[in-house]
Amino acid sequence: MHERETIEVELLLQAIHQLTGYDFRDYSRPSIMRRIHHRMKMNQMDSVSILQNEVFTNEEMLHQLLQDFSINVTEMFRNPLFFKYMREEILPIFKELSEIRIWHAGCSTGEEAFSMAILLKEAGLLEKSKIYATDMNEEVLKIAKEGKIPLSKMKNYTKNYQLSGGKQSFSQYYTTDEEYAYLQEDLVKSISFMQHNLVTDQSFNEFHMILCRNVLIYFNIGLQNKVQKIFFDSLSAGGILGLGHRETLQFTDVCKFYETKSIEHQIYKKKEIRYDE
């Protein structure tokens, strides 16, 4: 990235922050640049400055760019062996709890949160569990709250479910019409979908498990540290943290306060120690 374009990008991100309150200034630059260049190409713009001017004068352009910056790649039982480990090694730990609180941060359209609800149901834990699924993007949250998934995706999701150790008929968890699969009402009702921005918002509860998978790879090191502190403060002693397979607690300020449960699946357990000790 040339020096001029670097300055233009900084000014664009500053403008977006002041106009909307959304702060992308500490997002990974290669990731942000891919999205900026995509929007420039789609609208035949020659420079970031032209895009910035459009952002100031065209509300629809600002909306489109915010959607470009929002990461919405997800699927049910994504990385099935992660969920298999959860099923076999982690959920049994929670059986003695009277209440189980789980936070899915960066939930997109909710598929991974729905996957966890199915795991909890099969473990006999759903009725005493509450899943909080959050995302900065209001539009994907509206989709998630409907509990419906394009039918074309269900074949792949069924395969993922089976690879995750699922022994039931996956089709028992939904009904269908010609276009969509509609998840069972008890699965949908077990999840509270809420807007929350990891960059600007703080902890809002204490959780026994936090899952934030394939979100932190889009943040720079400083922002990753900030978010990991929020997660640490939000986890109960002995709580579980699950990250994406390309993410790690290594090199973060809170790393020493966790023990590794699975390096393969990036699953960690918070030690029973305070952050300031």
TrEMBL record:
SUPFAM superfamilies: Chemotaxis receptor methyltransferase CheR, N-terminal domain, S-adenosyl-L-methionine-dependent methyltransferases. InterPro entries: Bact_Chemotaxis_MeTrfase (IPR050903), CheR_C (IPR022642), CheR_MeTrfase (IPR000780), CheR_N (IPR022641), SAM-dependent_MTases_sf (IPR029063). Pfam families: CheR, CheR_N. Residues 8-249 form the CheR-type methyltransferase domain. PANTHER family: CHEMOTAXIS PROTEIN, CHEMOTAXIS PROTEIN METHYLTRANSFERASE. This is Protein-glutamate O-methyltransferase CheR.
